[in-house]
Amino acid sequence: MSEVGQESGGRLPSLEEAGVGAPAGQGRPWIRVVLPAHLRTLAGVRGEVSLDLAGEVTQRAVLDALEQRYPMLKGTIRDRETAKRRAFVRFFACEEDLSHDPPDAPLPARVVAGEEPFCVVGAIAGG
């Protein structure tokens, strides 16, 4: 069991206890990002990634910040040259598929508030 689980009497901490969705700098909330397991391994992270973004929260802003913080992810989610989403990657938030939304469209308010994560999902194809 992790130290967090031991400190909280064997239970997982609530989002508030873990600081998820808590204000980041300058009154801004953290943007929560969920990555698929293979990208978490590549980036060397466990669980959600939290990003502090200034300005409008869009797919482009989130992915730019993610790639800046974890440069090894550059080219895995978006094409390095065109910055377009890779064919077998999907974006979800608030139970909505945002994969075909324009990259500069604002993300849902619950994502901006840190209440819901922005999810990067590897799509599966085959027959």
Can you tell me about this structure?
- With 127 residues, the protein is of the alpha+beta class.
- The protein has a single domain, classed as Beta-grasp domain (Ubiquitin-like (UB roll)), CATH 3.10.20.30.
- It has five helices and five strands, in the order ααβαβαββαβ.
- The chain has a five-stranded mixed β-sheet, covered by helices on one side.
- Strand 3 and strand 4 form a beta hairpin.
- The relative contact order is 0.18.
Distance between the termini: 40 Å
Question: How much of the sequence is in beta strands?
Answer: 5-15%
**Which oligomeric state applies?**
single chain
How does the helix and strand content classify structurally? Answer: alpha+beta
Number of strands: 5
The largest β sheet comes out as: 5 strands, mixed
CATH architecture: Roll
Strand line-up in the sheet with most strands: 2-1-5-3-4
Mean pLDDT: 83
Radius of gyration: 15 Å
Note the overall shape.
globular
CATH fold-level name: Ubiquitin-like (UB roll)
CATH superfamily, called what?
Beta-grasp domain
Unreliable stretches, pLDDT < 50, 5 or more residues?
1-9, 12-23
Summarize the structure.
24% of the residues lie in helices and 15% in strands.
Tell me the layout of helices and strands.
Blueprint: H1 3-7, H2 15-18, E1 31-34, H3 37-43, E2 49-51, H4 59-69, E3 89-93, E4 96-97, H5 109-112, E5 118-122
Parallel strand pairs: 1-5
Antiparallel strand pairs: 1-2, 3-4, 3-5
Distinctive features:
disordered N terminus; 24% helix; alpha+beta; Ubiquitin-like (UB roll); 5 helices; 127 residues; five-stranded mixed beta sheet
